[in-house]
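Read as chain and fold; for instance:
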Amino acid sequence: MVHRRYLRTMSGRKRVGDVLAMAAVALIVLFAVFPIVWAFLISLKPEEDIVTATLTYIPRRVTFENYVAIWTRSNFPTLISNSAVVTLMTVAICTVIGTLASYAVARYRFVGRREMMMFYLVVRMFPAVMIIIPLFILMRGLGLLDSRLGLALAYTTFLLPVFIWMMKGFFEAVPNDLEDAARIDGASRIGAMVRVVLPLVVGGLVATAVFVAIGAWNEFLFALMLTTSTGSRTWPVGLQLMVGEFQLPWGSLAAGGIISILPVMVLFALMQRAMVRGLTAGAVKS
């Protein structure tokens, strides 16, 4: 009798704990999603209904004029295409260099290996504003200032260490015996990596590439300081330049923000399963 009462008490406590955990998760999700939903609702309002004496969340009149205006009366399509090109170039550079570097760090034991990885970590600790001026002078000397290639190289300076750190864990999770078997069969080191290891860490590679792509897509400071013309500016800079001294187009800004996050949402929807597989694969080391 006492045992049954104890089990019922424990079961009731577990249910209460589950309810509290679900409520906490719901609050966190609501806190994260609410600004996006609010921006979407603002983008559907006419300009005269946005700034009012009484706050209204649901639009009284739904209109898409903000989307039409920002797409046809501004350089927003060019800004989006610049962001896409720079992001793809950054991901390509980080993937090629970062994959080889992280594989070498994971497989070889050389002098200064630990110090080099600590250096990569320390680089991420410094604020990006500290390297803006040296990077600006370097890009100007190389003739890469105000160019999409220069911007992609600038993004690589702070995203490549992240790529190497993440991929190092995925490569270390793959047993060395698989590569040794391929080497015995006549494969070279690069051949064993490409044919044996990379197919096993492709989920982690996709997850890391997505994180790098999001970082490059949303970057603002480097794009602001290293670009001066519309031909190479990215969308975060374009949105900031829409704010004038006596003008603050809330509707257009909200519409631009919604348009700019759509590619990220689509990318997550397409790569969700691969990202989950990759992150869970790197969580356990064999």
Summary: The two ends are 46 Å apart (CA to CA). The chain has twelve helices and no strands. Confidence is low (pLDDT under 50) at residues 282-286. Residues 74-281 form a domain with the MetI-like fold fold (CATH 1.10.3720.10).
